[in-house]
Amino acid sequence: MSGTTLDDYTDLYAQRVHGMKASEIRALFSVANRPEVVSLAGGSPYTAALPLDAIGEMVAELIQREGAPALNYCVGQGEAALREQICAVMAEEGVDASVGASPDDVVVTTGSQQALDLVARVFLDPGDVVLAEAPSYVGALGVFQAAEADVVHVQMDDDGLVPEALEEAIAAVAASGRRAKFLYTVPAFHNPAGVTLAEERRERILEICQRHHLLVLEDNPYGLLGFEEQPPAPLRSRARDGVLYLGTFSKTFAAGIRLGWILAPHAVRDKIVMASEASILCPPTFNQRIATRYFTTMPWREQLKVFRELYRERRDATLAALTDFMPDGVRWTHPGGGFYVWLTLPEALDSKAMMPRAINARVAYVPGTGFYADGSGTSHLRLSYCFPPPERLREGVRRLGHVIEEELSLRSTFGATGSAGAPRRVAGDVPPGIA
Amino acid sequence: MSGTTLDDYTDLYAQRVHGMKASEIRALFSVANRPEVVSLAGGSPYTAALPLDAIGEMVAELIQREGAPALNYCVGQGEAALREQICAVMAEEGVDASVGASPDDVVVTTGSQQALDLVARVFLDPGDVVLAEAPSYVGALGVFQAAEADVVHVQMDDDGLVPEALEEAIAAVAASGRRAKFLYTVPAFHNPAGVTLAEERRERILEICQRHHLLVLEDNPYGLLGFEEQPPAPLRSRARDGVLYLGTFSKTFAAGIRLGWILAPHAVRDKIVMASEASILCPPTFNQRIATRYFTTMPWREQLKVFRELYRERRDATLAALTDFMPDGVRWTHPGGGFYVWLTLPEALDSKAMMPRAINARVAYVPGTGFYADGSGTSHLRLSYCFPPPERLREGVRRLGHVIEEELSLRSTFGATGSAGAPRRVAGDVPPGIA
């Protein structure tokens, strides 16, 4: 068998693949990992703060005592013992048995990313509409794009999603003869916007969704990472039906074990399990038993306090540096928890066009376009403060401030030279670990 | 938000979900796990044969030395060090650098199940045709069904896939105005058929696929588990292009870490990585480092010998028991490796209808219908010899022989009373761990 070339198979690709192409900024992220670059791009949790020796001992004992089943297959829904611990964690987030949260309705997934993917498989046909905040989590946009769905963004402000904007978006979609299937939302410590949906908006948003027969897909990875106070109770704690609730151990324990979950109404849960079995057979048994043991035998609430204190200090360092080093006209959000600050540049600037110059100045961020499905976001960028220590954060923000200043002075001298038009976001703009 | 009921959201489901329903035999498998039942149904590897203490120590040291990165995100393609080890394992299977196998073209997946799923996403549109052996791996059928593709089965015999039948199937698909995108095949120690594609057929099959511009999806989970001899060299070792090659650590190391891979032509590999990132962000870093360390520091080739010897003994016990206890008219395959024996019952019998009576007699198997997309397979069943010890296997086969005898005597007294017609296979017929 010779004479065929790789491109011979291009005509065999599925329809959904034709939108997939690697983006030009992707290559920049590999440069961002060089030690001389301060990366404010990545969303990696600071796992070095975990009690590694104790975890090592715990895992060794687990393998000794129950290695044979831990290293074998399990059921597609995930192990019952872990689903019980997940309910304990969700109760801490405000979603407990009093609102019908039960281990039986939990499905364990390969990070909450897979939960997003499973929801897309169960609910999305090509051409369906998904409503999502503007901006929105890049990993979710990737899922909706792979499902060939259309994302319609809904305006946010410092209090999160704007209810009136949601009403308008629903009406506009209906007027175009299409129908939105669900609202995807990150109400607490939003990625990338760093804002939290205000208490007084929560019932209102639920009421709008119910009235329009719209599912709510509530993603809550940062709910336990509030610095001054807990965020308002999740949407799922206010509505038993109509809300699919996603969680993850990536931020409260370890991203590298890739475990998340979905809490779904019973009938939906069945479909999710079948879709997951078709996708991965079952989540990793070994990792599930590690998480079960961690949450039953180790002081995870104290560890959460360690993480909160650590990230609070880094947020403070970032906000102080922004105040000290950003030129006039740059605005940013003030996150009460989570990992991210969202910057808005003066309008003439293009964060994507600026990226090579930032890398050259040894600082990296994620351009705002990654967080929009429609190519907008050029005047925004996301900074992550979760991984670098405070002094590095300060140095990174200082470098970035300098880059923006130079950009502004170039613009005032020569006028706007940024890229013309707004290219649509392409799949794979932002690699995982950055997401 | 009240007044909504769970079923209110049924009209929101995607098209692909409407074919999903839990099957009646699924419930029987939970009964099959009771200790009094000899389960010849499950495909779980015998992980108790692993050196658990040594693995425990290895993992504890790994967490101590590199816990922080091991518990964090990694790149979507999977870590470079593991991809190198995967190449070492593939070389053992006959796919090495001389035929262009390179770590750069490997993508690490959540078991080879996810690799199947990713191939389906990259290549299958609804209504596309996939050719697959008759019978075929149940997990693959689940993936193709979820992708809304049509599976056309191709006849096998004791030497594996029949080349003439492949030609005929391709012609029949073309005559129906459709086009097959790929051939899915398990050439070595087939699941469930227990047969191996003969050396003299391999070039022929490749030539047919090349001539018809058909991709080959070669799944090789059992290639290193040959009892008397290695299987003939994989198709991928005979063709650099046109073959996507799947592998897994589930049978050579541990199923519970859920790690597999795909080796794909470079252009295809890019699409696979992007599809995987949209699905799970990245495979579990922690598990990847465990596998890397296992395959670089521990005697994995010796462990493979342990597994081969163990499974050979179990196969021998099963074949001997079949000879001793099966009534006339029952036929079975003679696997040279892997986990499975495929039984053919006298035509009047229906393995699915017989299943409750078998469970009642405290023996479980997988009815043949699970391995066909078209509802055929009623006169077949699969026995797995990988998990129970030899004396349990013998007892299980004895019980099964008795059930079949009773079934035959009922049939000769009252005539056929099996289920009428051939219902199509439904998703979720067979749960993971059974697959």
TrEMBL record, chains A, B:
| GO molecular function terms noted in the UniProt entry | pyridoxal phosphate binding; transaminase activity
Superkingdom of the organism of origin: Bacteria
Q: Does the keyword Transferase apply?
A: yes
Q: Keywords in alphabetical order, please.
A: Aminotransferase, Pyridoxal phosphate, Transferase
Gene3D superfamilies, per the entry: Aspartate Aminotransferase, domain 1, Type I PLP-dependent aspartate aminotransferase-like (Major domain)
Where do the Aminotransferase class I/classII large domain residues begin and end?
40-400
Positions of the UniProt region annotated as Disordered: 415-435
Q: Which cofactor does it need?
A: pyridoxal 5'-phosphate
SUPFAM superfamilies reported for this sequence: PLP-dependent transferases (SSF53383)
- Asked whether the keyword Ribonucleoprotein is assigned, the reply is no
GO annotation (BP), single: alpha-amino acid metabolic process
Output the InterPro entries linked to this UniProt entry.
Aminotransferase_I/II_large (IPR004839), Class-I_PLP-dep_aminotransf (IPR050859), PyrdxlP-dep_Trfase (IPR015424), PyrdxlP-dep_Trfase_major (IPR015421), PyrdxlP-dep_Trfase_small (IPR015422)
Give the Pfam families listed for this entry. Aminotran_1_2
Q: Which family does it belong to?
A: Belongs to the class-I pyridoxal-phosphate-dependent aminotransferase family.
Subunit info?
Homodimer.
* Protein name, entry field: GntR family transcriptional regulator
> Gene symbol?
avtA
